[in-house]
Amino acid sequence: MTDTLPIRPTSKETHRQPSLLFPAELTAIELADRPPDAFADLNLDQIVASLTAKREPYDLAPYLWTPLPTVAAVRYRQAVFDDLADDQLRHGLEEFAEAMRVMRRWQSAAEKTSYRRYGQGCRLEAIHRYLTALASLRELLQQVGPRSNALKSIMEYLDEYVASERFVELGKDNRRLQNELASLHYAVRIRGPKVTVTSERSDQDFSKVVTATFERFQQSDVDSHLIKLGPPSFTHVDEQILGCLAKLNADLFGRLAEHCRRHATFIDAVISRFDRELQVCLGYLAITDPLRAAGLRFALPEFTDPPALDVRSGFDLALGLNIDPGRLVCNDATLEGDERALVLSGPNQGGKTTFARMVGQVFYLAGLGFPVPASHARLHLMDRIFTHFERVEDRDRDTEGGKLEDDVIRIRDILQQSTGRSVLVINEMFSSTTIDDAQYLGGAVLAKIGRSDTITVYVTFVEELASAPGAVSMVSRTLPEDPAVRTFHVDRMPPQGTAHALALAAKHRLTRAEIVRRLSRPAQPEPSPRQESTAPSRGAEA
Predict the structure, then answer these.
(1) 312 bridge partner residues
(2) Listing from the earlier edge strand, what are the strands of the sheet with 302-303?
(3) Homologous superfamily assigned to 297-517
(4) Closest CA relative to residue 339, chosen from 362, 309, 360, 314
(5) What is the DSSP code (8-state) at residue 421?
(6) What is the C-alpha to C-alpha distance for residues 55 and 1, in angstroms, rounded to an integer?
(7) Positive or negative, the Cα torsion across 368, 370, 374, 376?
(8) What does each C-alpha distance from 171 to 113, 124, 298 come to in angstroms?
(9) What are phi and psi for residue 491, nearest 5 degrees?
(10) pLDDT tens across the length of the chain (542 residues)
């Protein structure tokens, strides 16, 4: 789509009714100009990259960097996804989006060409495709009858817009000029370097002659030989021929030039914004379609006022976009009553960090009004999401305490900013210190989290943290018969302590009893080299 006109409003763009993504009370919202700090840690940047691929001219990332501030705004957007569950509506909107892309290619050709009359022809075609796309969109919405307030408002606006004097005049003038240009007949004679254009009309239909000539090569009937074409290539010779034709039809080409001048910017601002915002919804559905086809489920979350976490059969969407969906393992994440923290422990490479990312993604995507990767989700609307992962800091600190001090400063900053509406995902914090220090510091963090009501997922090697007030223990499981095999299921259960290490030791016969037994065996005497050399082999005897 590099040949389309850019349609990137600035990040300070405001949204006024009607809008597909924002309700009326958010008329002054500003789109973020950078992703939230937690984006990379939760692999949300990978989701955005997948969604925006091949949709670059629409500049969709700012929408995905801007979570909605109210539950009402989220439900406004959720209703759009409910409408898009209708296959007829979704297919029709995809056709509208494609028609607008083709229209923009013609408009782009009109803007970029140095050939004036060719540009006028491209603009005439662009206006025609714009009018056709809007007529089809209006007919689609009238047939389907969307239920969301967003699409209803678009339909009402469209009814008023196509009935306006400006739109009606644009359509009449454009059709009249197209018909007049299509009725022109002229002849081009080429003799050496000389090209002559006359207004002669031939009685012979050369298209019939060509068809009859090649009829014998036809092998079978097909529905259509039509292919999608964009603006044709053009040369200076073509422009000179058009110049000659314009001299022969000065009045017609004069009215064409005036028409293009008057309607240089014919695309309505509301329609242009709708076209852009529609790409957010269609793009998300496009990247999740393969996962749905593989049997994975998506749900529109329910929202509660007190902080809540209840996710069933959730999965890491970013991971699902990069591996075979059949390999994904779904997990539940639930906090009840006064519980505020999920403390994850278990063997390395067991799916703990993936589970933590899943929870963070579900909260964030819910805040965008998107279906979340789960069969069911009941959440509160977060105000911010924080992460504490091991990474290179993007700001310099004058510290001498190394990684431990850096961990303490980072989590202090997070706890100072977080509220009872926030979500915090911690991955292996304080791993650089002793287990006693990590237990003490982690306990202090969980105590602070408990007082602030911040929903937290804490991946740790310190299993004792699971006993903190408001904390729930979750463990990544292995196969009972083979502890070396991870199942990637994370279940609510007490910490396993040394159970995993003991099971591995038993499998490889490295328990204390096995080692003591082997060491206590009497040593077997080894045969001397002389004895070995004097003993004939069977081969020697033979």
Answers:
(1) 376
(2) 302-303, 376-379, 309-314, 331-335
(3) P-loop containing nucleotide triphosphate hydrolases (3.40.50.300)
(4) 309
(5) T
(6) 7
(7) positive
(8) 24, 11, 43
(9) -120, 155
(10) 444 444 544 444 444 579 999 999 886 789 999 999 999 999 999 999 999 999 999 999 999 999 999 999 999 999 999 999 999 999 999 999 999 999 999 999 999 988 888 899 999 999 999 999 999 999 999 999 999 999 999 999 999 999 999 999 999 999 999 999 988 888 888 887 888 888 876 666 666 777 788 877 776 665 555 445 557 677 787 788 888 887 888 899 899 999 999 999 999 999 999 999 999 999 999 999 999 999 999 999 999 999 999 999 999 999 999 999 999 999 999 999 999 999 999 988 899 999 999 999 999 999 999 999 999 999 999 999 999 998 655 444 555 667 888 889 999 999 999 999 999 999 988 888 888 888 999 899 999 988 888 999 999 989 899 989 999 999 999 888 777 788 999 999 998 765 555 565 666 667 777 777 777 777 666 666 555 444 444 343 32
Token digits of residue 42: 């939760």
- Are β-strands 194-198 and 376-379 bridged in parallel, bridged antiparallel, or unpaired? unpaired
Which residues are paired to 187 by β-bridges?
198
CB contact set of 119 (below 8 Å; sequence gap of 6+): 109, 110, 111, 113, 260
141-151: burial string, b at 16+ Cβ within 10 Å, e else: beebebebbbb
Q: Is 423 helix (H, G, I), strand (E, B) or coil?
A: strand
Q: What is the pLDDT of residue 2?
A: 41
Cα 87 to its chain centre, rounded Å, is: 20
Amino acid at 231: P
Show the tokens assigned to 239. 């422009």
* C-alpha of 370 from chain center: 10
Q: Where are the domains of the chain?
A: 24-206+229-281, 297-517
For the record, the structure tokens of 487 come out as: 């199942």
User: Position 121: which residue type?
Assistant: G
**Residue (of 134, 143, 206) closest to 166 by Cα position:** 134
Quickly list H helices, 145-185.
149-163, 165-182
Task: State residue 527's pLDDT score.
Answer: 62
For 268-297, the DSSP string reads -HHHHHHHHHHHHHHHHHHHHHHHHHTT--
Using CA atoms, how far apart are residues 494 and 483, in angstroms rounded to an integer? 17
Strand order in the sheet with 341-345: 385-388, 423-427, 455-459, 341-345, 471-479, 482-492
Tokens of 111: 């803007």
User: Please, which contacts does 255-264 make with residues 24 or more away whose CB atoms are closer than 8 Å?
Assistant: 255/177, 256/120, 256/124, 256/177, 256/181, 257/120, 259/124, 259/173, 259/174, 259/177, 260/110, 260/119, 260/120, 260/123, 260/124, 263/123, 263/127, 263/170, 263/173, 264/123
Residue 147 three-state SS: coil
DSSP state of 34: S
- What six digits make up the tokens of 392? 């290179």
| Global pTM value | 0.84
Longest CA–CA span in the chain (Å) reads: 120
